[in-house]
Amino acid sequence: MENFAQLVYSLDQTTKTNKKIDLLVSFFSNASNSDKLWCIALFSGRRPKRLISTKYLRQWACEETDLPTWLLEDTYSVVGDLAETISLLTQEKNQISTKSLTSWISELRQLENQGLEEKRDFVTNAWSTLNRQERFVFNKLITGGFRLGVSQKLTIRALSKVTKIDQFELSLRLMGNWHPDTISWSSLIINDERKSDISRPYPFCLAYGLDKDIEDLGRKSDWIAEWKWDGIRGQIIKRAKELFIWSRGEENLTERFPELEALKNFIPDGSVLDGEVVAWGGEQPLNFNILQKRIGRKKVSKSLIEKSPVILIAYDLLEVQGKDIRNQKLELRRSKLKKLINLIPNNLPIKLSEEIESNTWRDLSLKREASRSHNAEGIMLKNRNSDYSSGRKKGVWWKWKLDPLTIEGVLIYAQAGHGRRANLYTDYTFAIWDGNQLVPFTKAYSGLKDEEFRRITSWVRKNTIQKFGPVRQVPPELVFEIAFEGIHESTRHKSGVALRFPRMLRWRHDKLAKDADKLEDLKAFLT
Questions:
Q1: Do 87 and 142 touch, CB atoms closer than 8 A?
Q2: What's the CA gap between 513 and 203, in Å, rounded?
Q3: String of b and e for 429-444 (b: at least 16 CB within 10 Å)?
Q4: CA-to-CA distance for 381 and 404, rounded, in angstroms?
Q5: Which residue from 5, 384, 390, 491 puts its CA 20 to 30 A from 28's CA?
Q6: What confidence tens digit (pLDDT) does each residue in 6-44 have?
């Protein structure tokens, strides 16, 4: 546990990529095989099931430290992370434990069938036998994941250095449904014994946001243009007469989209298709909020399927007759995909992603401006000669999204952030005018520079009207331009609408509260 806790602490202290890789290499070179496996699992979201609510952790921490609840909560609001707050307030009292990460996780999971008192004894004893960094990790094992700015790509680069296995191959071995309970380090990393797992997806090829002038991409004829659909990225896998659906987040979605099961009889065995699962109505996709109703449900009712039917808009083919064809050129993969889809009856829930025809970049730019009429977010640009790489590879796939929708609102509430922003008020609630009344319509916490957050924090502290726990009410004076990707009606919000991906575009120093937009301006985006 000590080495893993030191790794977590050191990773959190640096933003340098090479330093993070060196730290991971050092850990993987010295840790036990089981600890290495749990490290990969935890960093990729495969954490143990939460067995204890934060309500009890707060209560036990107060009892162990003789602190009143209000003081712990005030400390939490400053620190911004409950696991770190408790690790700072509690102290080691007994001989420091030498148990491994794997041992602690195993003992934690044995608590599932224990009573509350047994859980309390275990947790408080752990706090007294772990140092501060180890307590932080222990608390994280109970309360949540490890968000350390360590991508799977960095982890794979470090693993490749240690094992001498190619990064491309490692990324494939780590895909899909594996867990430290059911596989060993040797089976997963060294020998790749999951080759027989017929459901295993491929690592997804991802695109960068276009950060240059479109003309700088060279000849228009070298690029395939497609609509950027607003759905769930997914791979459909057909092997051994079984069909599986995997999301980009490595979640098996097969049971959530049962209507896609009809494709099983028409997609040849040994095929893997990449595309976008979208809600579909008539001749084009429906708004994302319709699809969202199904995302959180493992099993869906017949009525929900009827109200929000889905299809796969396929745009790539990764496997044919059991052979990995990701190293073939995109143009060739698309040609094979087209032939496959042409053999599937038109009434089944799959379509080939349309290639947008245009003679010049200017022509394509004009078509991009009409993306919203197709319920698309913009255009995808893919080099015809590109292979299907793992993760992001700059220069081969680009997202050319539409400029966001914008509205100007007034700041009315502020709350402190988390982590390195725990001492700053960065989470804001905004309102717009409905007649003579300000109505809250969205929250946002990103988009501004650190210096702007510091200035706003100083203003909030000087101008707080009321406190509601960690939330501060402030006078409606500061105006901000809010960017967002989409909007839909919502009975859960007082404004009657909900925004998708809201963020602050800029602080409008030149405007007063009276200049903010009206609710009718916002609802105009619904049409």
A1: no
A2: 48
A3: bbbbbbeeebbbbbeb
A4: 19
A5: 390
A6: 998 898 888 898 999 999 999 999 999 999 999 998 888
Nearest to 355 by CA among 500, 223, 163, 171: 223
Nearest CA-CA partner of 236 in 257, 222, 221: 257
Asked if 440 and 412 touch (Cβ cutoff 8 Å), the reply is: yes
The Cα 264–Cα 278 span in angstroms is 18
pLDDT in tens, 268-303: 999 999 999 999 887 788 888 788 777 777 678 888
- In 3-state terms the chain splits into helix, strand, coil percentages (rounded to 5) of 40, 25, 35
SS (H, E, C) 126-192: HHHHCCHHHHHHHHHHHHCCCCCCCCHHHHHHHHHHHHCCCHHHHHHHCCCCCCCCCCCHHHHHHCC
Phi and psi angles of residue 239, each rounded to the nearest 5 degrees, phi first? -140, 145
Structure tokens, 155: 């982890």
Domain layout of the chain by residue ranges: 2-143, 205-401, 405-526
- Could you tell me which residues are beta bridge partners of residue 380? 226, 399
- d(CA 156, CA 170) in angstroms, rounded, equals 7
pTM for the whole structure: 0.78
Looking up tokens 């990449």 gives 274
Report the alpha-carbon distance of residue 104 to residue 309 in Å, rounded.
45
Residue type, 299: K
Residue 41: CB partners within 8 Å, gap ≥ 6? 47, 179, 180
Closest CA to 337 of 326, 348, 347: 326
Residues annotated as catalytic (active site), given as ranges: 228
Domain covering 205-401 in this structure, CATH number = 3.30.470.30
Question: How far is 226 from 470, CA to CA, in rounded Å?
Answer: 45
Picking from 329, 390, 384, the residue whose alpha carbon sits closest to that of residue 217 is 384
Alpha carbon 434 to its chain centroid, in Å, reads 34
Q: Give the angle 145-150-151 at the CA atoms, nearest 5°.
A: 100
Closest listed residue to residue 246, CA positions, set 312, 299, 150, 307: 312
Element (H, E) at 210: none
Structure tokens at 461: 């502290």
Contact 352, 359 (CB under 8 A): no
CATH architecture of the domain with residue range 405-526: Beta Barrel (2.40)
Burial of 268 (0-12, 13-18, 19+ CB in 10 A): exposed
Task: State how far the Cα of 308 lies from the Cα of 259, in Å rounded to an integer.
Answer: 11
Q: Do residues 429 and 239 make contact, with C-beta atoms less than 8 angstroms apart?
A: no
Ramachandran class of 162: left when φ > 0, alpha when ψ lies in -120 to 50, beta otherwise: alpha
**If you classify domain 2-143 with CATH, what class do you get?**
mainly alpha
Residues, the chain, total?
Answer: 527
